[in-house]
Amino acid sequence: MKKISSALLVLAFMLAMICVAVADDAVTPAKLEGAKIVTADEVKKILGQKDVHVYDMRKALNFGKGHLQGAVSLPFKWTVENEDPSKRQGEFNMSQLPQDKNAKIVFHSDGPSGWKSYYAAKTAKEAGYKNVMWYREGFDDWSKKGYPLEH
Predict the structure, then answer these.
(1) Helices within the chain (DSSP H only)
(2) Is 106 exposed, middle or buried (0-12, 13-18, 19+ CB in 10 A)?
(3) What is the average pLDDT across 22-29?
(4) Between these two residues, 18 and 145, which has the higher pLDDT value?
(5) Number of folded domains that form the chain
(6) What are the two backbone dihedrals, phi and then psi, of residue 2, each rounded to the nearest 5 degrees?
(7) Average pLDDT of 114-143?
């Protein structure tokens, strides 16, 4: 009986770990109402333009390992965790965004499972920004394409 109980306990633990792993890899929505989803090529084309602001929502440590040229580190921090990423809550320093609500703003994080940039773009749109762009494929895609990075 003890062996069965132990085996069930181990099985339950393994299932819980699988659920957490799957939640961490949960893919962000393919659309974000009111924001334009942009590709690496589109971001590359507008990088460096005077009126374009690019924000990297990853942790500062990851930003320091490499980031898109001219991007500003603006880490998004979770305030409410949840196994279902669509139910998480978080925040970032919105005072770092341009005061001009018509400014072109690009948010990105790791890639399609990078919920931080999704929530940042959604929050900016809800705050009244009119030209919100979300680079959904994010840093992973940029790196794979061999596009230039700053360190």
Answers:
(1) 2-24, 40-46, 60-65, 115-126, 138-144
(2) buried
(3) 73
(4) 145
(5) 1
(6) -65, -35
(7) 97
> What's the CA gap between 126 and 118, in Å, rounded?
12
Whether residue 135 contacts residue 40, with contact meaning beta carbons closer than 8 Å, is answered with: yes
* pLDDT reported for residue 24: 56
Indicate the burial class of 23 (C-beta count within 10 angstroms; 0-12, 13-18, 19 or more): middle
* Domain with 24 in it: 2-150
The end-to-end CA distance of the chain, in Å, is 57
Q: Residue 73's CB: how many other CB atoms inside 10 A?
A: 16
Q: Are 41 and 146 in contact (CB under 8 A)?
A: no
CATH of the domain at 23: 3.40.250.10
CA distance 69 to 72: 9
Instruction: Compute the distance between CA of residue 145 and CA of residue 42 in angstroms, rounded to an integer.
Output: 13
146: left (phi over 0), alpha (psi -120 to 50) or beta: left
Parallel/antiparallel/unpaired status of strands 89-91 and 77-80: antiparallel
How confident is the model over 57-80, as pLDDT tens digits?
999 999 999 999 999 999 999 999
